[in-house]
Amino acid sequence: FEWCLANSLALQAALMNYTGQIEYHLPSHPLCKLGSQIRTGQKQLSQKEPVADPTVYTDGSGKAAVVWYDDHQWQHIVEQQEGSPQIVELCAVTLAFQRFTRAVNIVTDSAYVAGLVQRLDKALLGKVSNALLFGVFQSLWLTIQKRSQPYYVLHIKSHTTLPGFLAAGNAQADQLVSAAAMGPVPNMMQQAIESHRFLHQGFHALKPQFHLTTTEAQSIVAACPDCQGEHVPAYYG
Q1: Are 169 and 196 part of one and the same domain?
Q2: Same domain, 102 and 144
Q3: pLDDT, tens digit, for every residue of 117-137?
Q4: How many structural domains is the chain composed of?
Q5: pTM to 2 decimals?
Q6: What ranges make up the beta strands (E) of 29-159?
Q7: Burial of 16 per CB tally in 10 Å (0-12, 13-18, 19+)
Q8: Are residues 72 and 168 in the same domain?
Q9: How far, in Å, are 6, 137, 139, 160, 197 from residue 133 at the CA level?
Q10: What are the residues whose beta carbons fall under 8 Å from the beta carbon of 188, sequence distance 6 or more?
């Protein structure tokens, strides 16, 4: 009965306003008696430790973005979504689950979304007054309930300048949803500055990517507080 209550929308709807007690009796069959003596439960989908690859990154602000690294390059899915950043971020996680039905690690910079998704595999879906939010909750909940493979959710600080693969993936997702808000960049030099602010490329990478001179590329790296000591100083005679 507990499993049916957790997985049957029809049963949940039928008992929504019921405040009494429910009793049920199993038939006197040997298998039913055995079942009452053996503890069974739904498989734990949300894990406390990372699972096998892939690792995907989600972000949301007007657009829901899912980013992952495959075939030696960054791949992504981006969809326009309505609602608050939290709602759009939930949509992004739903997209990630729909795209990756196998075991997956999900990295998000929303503590709200991370805490919710970590518990949603065992939760009952309650009524929410916000129709848009309820629809997003329902879609995500149903997507998780259909899964058979585990997942792990990690919260990462947004806009972090720390080095590492996780920060790089989060920066890629952030760029996808922030591009519209940033608007057109006036020139290649400014584009290079904005790119380095997220990805912290060396001047050797900046120079051909944005058609800069060596001095211009070095000056961008030298001006970055997170890259001090990493750039090659320019000497003038």
Answers
A1: no
A2: yes
A3: 988 888 777 777 788 888 898
A4: 3
A5: 0.58
A6: 55-60, 63-70, 73-80, 104-108, 151-155
A7: exposed
A8: yes
A9: 20, 6, 10, 28, 33
A10: 210, 211, 212
